[in-house]
Amino acid sequence: MTHLMRPPARPEIETLPEYRLRHPAGACVKLNQNESPFDLPEELKREVLEALARTPWNRYPPVRADGLGALLADRSGVAPDQVILTNGSNEAILSLFAAFGAPGAVVLCAPGYSMAKPLAVVAGAEVREVPLRPDLTMDPEAMLQAARGARVIFFASPNNPTGRLVPREEIAKIAARTEALVVVDEAYWGFFPKDERVRALAGTPAYEAYTAVGLVAEFGNLAVVRTASKALGLAGARVGWVIARPEVVGVLRRTLAPYNLNVFAHLAAEAMARRPELVRARIAQVVAERERLFGELRRLGVLVYPSDANFLLFRCPDARSAFEALAARGILVRDVSSYPMLEGCLRVTVGTPEENDRFLKAMGEAVG
């Protein structure tokens, strides 16, 4: 006898929307997912592939990729037992929500990282969303008010899709005034702060004094999430990590599945982490192009918001029409106009100079 009916999923999962992006036919300049515009150099790819060929594929990878974790810890000025590797930053966020949030409440800002709410729901946590201020910056007092009785406070710094950095002193104030775990998603580390002399230290312990990582020594209820997808240019490898006190990392070691980082991801991330000068040079190029895009969009009469990340948020009279007009000219951006407070907004990733020129030309025609 056959039985074709599937069992019901949890009610909150049944209503969870599927992650989708609009990909109009013909769009060929991809500026919609905040990836690095630069692929790995060919010689570095060959180095990784040769190392991969020497690695047994019939054996499991390291249980926790501790070698790469130790390297990232050294770059961040923390101890190896304060870093744990994950299969992309989403696995890190999901594990933190599951271990520390569920079945209690997770506090998020809105608009914020689009995957945070689904990950909290999947983890089994209650979601409390707090609106940003009218200027699209996070409101620490409102977050703390909403966090009464909550178990996790989560926000991205810089925020996605607004691009605004949460000042370090505000992060410290939140961590000092709550017993909840404060999770700071620093996916766009390296692109901030504005000071070029500080950004030039990206990938060194000196840089971390300006980020939330520098607060980990002071607060046992703080966890910083990072990814190799942006500054390291490894979105295809799916590598993330958490920096926290050993007590927090120890909980994650019991909740994460073993062997969660495959051998290719491990080797590719290690190769880039060992070349901080290449990472810094690429960050400098992206930041220079970001500021150029910001100025050119303003000259076109577009309302564009300041950014500390590798993307820009801008507002149009008709976001859907602008999105379609750009797509018709081969330019793919992110339509975020359905997000809270972002009516009429699109988000563009900083591309190569040539890609950015094409985007600006298309924008000029679209708003002309």
Written overview of the protein:
The chain is globular, with a radius of gyration of 21 Å. A 7-stranded mixed β-sheet has the order 2-8-7-6-5-3-4, sandwiched between helices. The protein is 39% helix and 15% strand. Helix 2 (42-54) packs across helix 11 and helix 4 packs across helix 5. It folds into 2 domains: 11-41 and 277-367, Aspartate Aminotransferase, domain 1, CATH 3.90.1150.10; 53-275, Type I PLP-dependent aspartate aminotransferase-like (Major domain) (Aspartate Aminotransferase, domain 2). The chain is built from 14 helices and 13 strands. The longest helix is centred in the C-terminal third of the chain and has 24 residues, at 276-299. By secondary structure, it is an alpha/beta fold. The model has no long low-confidence stretch (mean pLDDT 95).
